[in-house]
Structure formats: structure tokens, C-alpha cells
Amino acid sequence: MDIYLIKLILVHLIGDFFLQPNAWVKDKERKKLRSIKLYWHVAIHIVLIFLIFLNFGVWRLALSIGVLHFVIDALKSIFQTKKNARILFFVDQVLHFTSIVVLWHFFYKGSLNISFFNETKTWVLISGALFLTMPTSIVMRVIIAKWLPDNQPDSPQSLQNAGKYIGILERVLIFLFILTNHFEAVGFLLAAKSIFRFGDLKEAHDLKLTEYVLIGTLLSFGIAIVTAMLIQMFI
């Protein structure tokens, strides 16, 4: 990757996540375009470009980054509500990184190598990873539905859909561990989950619920391991 693009990404990470206090974020959300913190935030990004590039000759690039950053953050502050705040956060970051790539291409004639999207290996990996998310969750729900304890279909103290997302994350991690030949990490992951999960089940004194969770865990790990090994053999 081009060093100029790396520096621009570094500027964004420092400016948006290290040098932007939560109080500034709240102030921008509340006062919107009247927030002085919005302008300080943009100014910090411009100054960071000069500091990281160590060259005042990049003033056009710095100014362009500042203007686009201001426009994106201003639009976010105007349209953001409590309901769409989470979505707009990710939209905001995508727009920032897109603007960085566009300006890098414009000022340094850089280009990204995306030839890997034409490789069969890439699409096999993507397919395997996607299979371990929602499709596997649905398959597992169908398989173990008949064993769901009648007295505790859902724990009132549990986060909404937490179990589903925990399962997705653990399967994707197993997928990555096996493809990078770190089988020992799978054992650490299983041990960590056992410590947190089965400690709670022991206190609950519910044998059926314990067996249900154990079946789900082993099934989740088993599907992830088999899928990862099949993908590894194929590629």
C-alpha cells in the first residue's frame, strides 16, 4: 500500500478516535453547525496532515481533506437522530475513508489493486465466512429447537439476540484461526467460553438448559471447524 495513503488513514484514525473527546461529539450532536468543537475537530485534521507529512507543500491536500471532513461531519450532525445514530456512524466512516482514497488518487495518482476480487480463492473464502454467520445460525436453530427448555426459552437477563451474535463471532474466529493454522487458538476460545458460560449454568442448577447450551456450543464449533477445513482443502 502506498505510504501517502497510509499516512492519510493514520491522520483520520488519530483525529477521529484519539483527539476527539466524547464531550466534543455530544456538543456537535447538540449544537450541530453552531458547535465550535466541529470546527476545532476539522482544524485538528488539517494540522495533523502537516505534522505527519512534515511538508507544508501538502496544503492543498490538507485543505481538501478538511473541507470534505467538515461537509461529512456537518451532514451527519444535521440528520442524526437517536434512531439512526448507529447507522450514521458507520456511514460517516465509510464516507471519510472513501474521500481519503479519492483525494489520494487525485493528488498522488494512486490506485488500489483489487485484482484479488477476480480470484476464485477470494470468493470461496467469502462464501465460507458468510455461511458461518446467519445461515449457520438458522440451521442450528432448526436442529436444536426441539431441545429448547420450555421453562427458559429466553433469559430475561440476556441481551437481545446476544447468543446469536456470540455464535457468529465465535464461528468466524474459528474460521480465521484454522485458515491461519492456529488450531491452538480454537482451544483457548472454547476454554474461555466455557469459563464464562458454564459458570452461570452451574449456578442456575438446570440440567436441561446446561445440556441444551452444550449441544449448541459443540454444534457451532463443529460446523465452524468442518467448514474451515473444507475451505482450506479447496484453496
UniProtKB/TrEMBL annotation:
The chain crosses the membrane at residues 36-53, 87-107, 122-144, 172-192, 212-231. Keywords: Membrane, Transmembrane, Transmembrane helix. It comes from the Bacteria. InterPro entries: Phage_phiKZ_Orf197. This is DUF3307 domain-containing protein. It comes from Pedobacter ginsenosidimutans.
